[in-house]
Amino acid sequence: MGLEAWFMDSSDEDQRKPHRLNPNQPVSLDELKELGVFYWKLNADIYETDPELEQIRKDQGYSYMDIITIHKDKLPNYEEKLKMFFEEHLHVDDEIRYILDGQAYFDVRDKEDRWIRISMRKGDLITLPAGIYHRFTLDETNYTKAMRLFVGEPVWKAYNRPADDFDIRQKYVASLQEPEREMLLPI
């Protein structure tokens, strides 16, 4: 099964629940691509020797890699970290995550500022573009193990919303307008 994503409801019920609208409003991979979100499905059982992962890392310049296990018995300051991950924020670099085990959600904002929930499962690799507002949470299984990939040295700094004055946010927003801009030329 490929990646599944949908528009979220506005309920403030437990963040780990799916939060689908009723009826469900799915979001396609093409719609995610328009937001700069890219996806690969890989075989997580062979991540240490996977030639496809190696090729992606080479093509994208992902030189840094580490692995984080998000579970109350494995992650120091677990509750605090989960709260921090779920704060709406952006980064000045792309965020690249590869789920090696378990499952989780990434939520991203669309062009109209609506939340899209992306369900991440074992074998899913995703890149969120620098400047996109997003957040992360576990699902009700309360467990995921993820590879974090980076171009060069990792920068773990998150900038909570509002961060609209950041250059990277303005570049990101401008990149969303580009196809439309051609139609808005002065007459």
UniProtKB/TrEMBL annotation:
Pfam families: ARD
Membrane topology: Peripheral membrane protein
GO molecular function per UniProt: acireductone dioxygenase (Ni2+-requiring) activity; acireductone dioxygenase [iron(II)-requiring] activity; iron ion binding; nickel cation binding
Compartmental location: Cytoplasm; Nucleus; Cell membrane
Co-factor binding comment: Binds either 1 Fe or Ni cation per monomer. Iron-binding promotes an acireductone dioxygenase reaction producing 2-keto-4-methylthiobutyrate, while nickel-binding promotes an acireductone dioxygenase reaction producing 3-(methylsulfanyl)propanoate.
This protein's encoding gene: ADI1
Protein name as annotated: Acireductone dioxygenase
Cofactor dependence: Fe(2+); Ni(2+)
GO process terms (BP): L-methionine salvage from methylthioadenosine
